[in-house]
Amino acid sequence: MDYYQQILTRYWGFSGFRPLQEEVIFSVMAGNDTLALMPTGGGKSITFQVPALAKEGICVVVTPLISLMKEQVGRLKKMGIKACALYSGMSRSEIMINLDNCLYGDFKFLYVSPERTRTELFRSRFIKMKLSLLAVDEAHCISQWGYDFRPSYLNIAELREIQPDVPVLALTATATLDILDDIQEKLRFREKNVLRSSFERKNIVFRVIESADKLKMLGRIVQGIHGSGIIYVRSRKNARMLAEELERNRISATYYHAGLAHSERDIRQKNWTNGSVRVMIATNAFGMGIDKADVRFVLHYDIPDSVESYFQEAGRAGRDGEEAWALLLYNKNDKSKLERRLKTGFPDIEEVKKVYEALGNYLQIAVGGGKNQVYDFNIASFSSRFKMNMLMAYNSLKTIEREGYIELTEDVKNPSRVHFLARRDDLYRFQVENRSFDGFIKLILRSYTGLFTEYISISESFLARKGNISAEMVKEYLKRLSSMKIISYIPGKRTSFIIYNEERLDRKNLTISYERFVKRKEGFVLRQKKMWDYVETKSICRSLFLLEYFGEKDAVACGKCDICKAGNESGLSDSEFGIIKDEIREKLAERAYSAEDLVHALNHEDDKLLEVIRYLLDNEMIKYAGNNKLSWSGN
Ligand code: ADP
User: Is the Cβ atom of 42 under 6 angstroms away from ligand 1?
Assistant: First the structure.
């Protein structure tokens, strides 16, 4: 067994590497800058975690998703590997302790959110770290024109300058060819080096279904498939409405969106994950951390804004390798819905400026102040205070973020944390002198370890049960010990944050580049158009379409999607069917032809041509327009 395999088995207990993992590890270990393109769930984390364990020093992982960061740190710690994280919402002293541990405490992993990498505090420690590897997760966020640009990713290039000899490993699940180039350039790759695994999902059957009455069709589809599924919708109202409709049809269903309380969301997700509810109807707020292998179908009731999002969401089907369905329902009205989304997605610059001003007032930041400050933020209460449409407010903030002025973080649930400030002997003296605290201090020291070296997450209710006192009492003790500087106590809370990267400007001094705004809007339109092409195509295998979009050149038709099936029924090979059909469409776009004229005009065997014409007639894609002539009526 080679060395990396040994690490994999020793720490994770896995018997072997998945496709591409080993190649990426070899590349990184040879000191090469590497861009690894693997589908979600493909096992990206192993590709930096194994090299980090094989090498001396610490691996810094830049990642934007705080919840995933916390989950990974938790997992590593359980395996006995020293790891910690830095993200917005942590106190300065917590950050200092973690950074010191990274310098002097033989930590193997430091996870850091991109906006934290630009701070002086981070940089001053980073320069001294014995860095083994710089890993950049969700690396497509560095590309300005991609669908998820985050300006703070651009800072990562400066980290490279600070530690120029350490290789970078960039990871992404969704990137088109130009974005792959952009990532390597922005991360200052010494040499181009992309390793990719196939995105093909052989067990997924892709289908696009046109239906004037989507609701009715939905009921029929869900009744016809067994097992759990996800239905993606765009609006909260639809989420609820569809769940009610399915329930009326005796299909067990629940719904999920960002407007529900967190506790409610957690319960619903759990019920769906453990199978007590069969169908989850959700907006795209439902996604992160879905860990369910036996999802039998993912159905899109509305059309996503990009092929990237579609593929990621649809790809949640069939992780267990068994047959699963990726379905998309549409009708003609959907096109105008896409266009309307463009309008809310890109509010006018004047509108954006208004939101910027409102934000400063809401957070009570004086003009000229606020630089590098972190603020709690709740979009719902912000937009209701200023009577703004929430989506418009959100997209305006996103525009301001893309220009680099502010940074928005996801909603994070931070548990309460405690760190002992008093040294052990001082604490002992305190306990002797303050008898009333003695029992509580013992309780907490018996319940948790590591309290003297770092902030440890605690649970007030757990301590209350264990100590047989009320949770209120526990909090009271913690607050009092904190005010006496025996401990530092940070009560838990759930919130999202806004970070001001620049001081608050006067509204008239806020510049939003019109050129960039237009270019981004164009990018958005192009992505929507490509998505609409996917919906409308009648000639390219669905799987092929998706794989080609992600730059896979030698993919083959799946033979199972609606397009391939149409070809199969006609008795021709998929590609022949597609080619002949396209040629017929082109001809009929010029003028109407009789069947006989068509057969003469096109250079294929007569039988095959007649077969395709018959199929197209049966499926009402062509029709007789009088004089025995055919015209095109399909898509
Ligand atoms: P990604 O970041 O690509 O979405 P993860 O790194 O989270 O994927 O891995 C997805 C899942 O696959 C995790 O549960 C992980 O433990 C598992 N996994 C990764 N590599 C292997 C392997 N070689 N053998 C078995 N399971 C693996």
Answer: yes
